Structure formats: structure tokens, C-alpha cells
């Protein structure tokens, strides 16, 4: 592992450790660097602020694993990874949601779900003739719906299991994106 990756991982691990007992808005760069033995200068060589580090963590730990499941046949597996990550990192996700970092979390989730659904929509529509605008509108609508369900789950303190959430989302979404796109297919 390159020095940059080792440093970023150490900073990330320190932030995750601190988030088990502090909300993201209570954590300062000095706390992270003190925990992992780096200087503030080292932190700022890699990240602009604590929120950027948090985004890096989510990107590395969530997005990288989901990309391979962005197809009509495998979307449930990708979504299950996101749900399981959230449950496995319950305190970190809930502390982010309950803090001033909530906007960062919502923006991150919007990007994740949009990217996830856009690739699925591309997979579904490869044999269709659709205006790009229709695909983008469909992606926007369903990513907002998915984010709304996810935020509601956070509000309920992750009461349901990832499996229960996946079943609920699957019941509401399965076939709907395909049907929406078929309405606009000009082939």
C-alpha cells in the first residue's frame, strides 16, 4: 500500500473510532491527528476538512463495492451492500445523520443512489430508444425515492434489518423503472 493510502486509511480509522462516541460536528482535525499520531499538516495534505475525510471513507467503503452490481439483474445485491454497510457502521452513520454533517450525508447518498440508478437505467435502456432527458428524469425521481426510504430508516434508528429494508424497497421498485422507461421507448 502506498504511503498516501496508508496515511489516509489511518486518518479514516481514527475518524471512525472517534465517531463511535462523538457526532461529526464535534470532531476536529486535532482530535483525529492526535489519535493516529500525525500532524495537522499531514491531515491537510490529504483532506480539506473532516467532512471530506468522511466522504472519502464512504466512497472507499461503499461506492467501490457497489459498482459491479449496477445492472437490472443484480441491483438488489448492490443495495444490500449499502444497507449492510449502514447497519455494520450504525453509530458512524447515525452520528453523521444526527449532526450538522447530515447535509453531507444526504448529498453523498444522493450521489450514490443517482450513480447506482443511472447505471441500472443505462443497462435497462440499452435496447430502447429514449431521449436522454427521460433517463435523467427517471434517475432523479427514483434516486430521490430511494434516498427518502433510506433517510426514513435512519430516522427510525435502523430498526429494521437490511434484509427487511431490501424486501420493502424491492416490493416498491421492482419492475417500476422498466415500466416507466417502456412508456417512453420510441423503438
TrEMBL record:
Segments forming a coiled coil: none
Entry's Gene3D superfamilies?
Answer: Tetracycline Repressor, domain 2
Q: Which Pfam families match?
A: TetR_C_8
Identify the InterPro entries for this entry: Homeodomain-like_sf, HTH-type_Tx_Regulator, TetR_C_Firmicutes
Residue stretches making up the Transcriptional regulator TetR C-terminal Firmicutes type domain = 73-175
PANTHER family in the record, alphabetically?
ACREF/ENVCD OPERON REPRESSOR-RELATED (PTHR43479), TETR-FAMILY TRANSCRIPTIONAL REGULATOR (PTHR43479:SF7)
What is the designated name of this protein?
Transcriptional regulator
Amino acid at each position: 500500500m502506498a504511503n498516501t493510502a496508508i496515511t489516509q486509511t489511518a486518518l479514516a480509522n481514527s475518524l471512525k473510532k472517534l465517531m463511535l462516541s462523538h457526532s461529526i460536528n464535534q470532531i476536529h482535525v486535532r482530535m483525529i491527528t492526535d489519535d493516529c499520531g500525525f500532524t495537522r499538516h499531514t491531515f491537510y495534505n490529504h483532506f480539506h476538512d473532516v467532512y471530506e475525510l468522511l466522504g472519502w471513507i464512504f466512497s472507499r467503503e461503499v461506492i467501490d463495492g457497489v459498482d459491479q452490481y449496477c445492472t437490472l439483474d443484480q441491483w438488489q445485491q448492490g443495495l444490500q451492500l449499502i444497507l449492510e454497510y449502514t447497519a455494520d457502521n450504525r453509530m458512524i452513520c447515525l452520528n453523521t445523520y444526527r449532526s450538522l454533517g447530515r447535509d453531507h450525508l444526504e448529498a453523498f447518498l444522493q450521489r450514490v443512489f443517482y450513480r447506482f440508478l443511472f447505471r441500472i437505467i443505462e443497462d435497462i435502456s440499452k435496447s430502447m430508444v429514449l431521449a436522454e432527458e427521460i433517463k435523467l428524469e427517471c434517475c432523479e425521481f427514483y434516486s430521490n425515492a430511494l434516498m427518502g426510504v433510506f433517510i426514513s430508516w435512519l430516522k427510525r434508528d435502523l430498526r429494521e434489518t437490511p434484509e427487511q429494508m431490501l424486501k420493502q424497497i424491492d416490493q416498491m421498485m421492482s419492475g417500476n423503472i422498466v415500466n416507466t422507461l417502456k412508456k417512453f421507448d420510441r423503438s
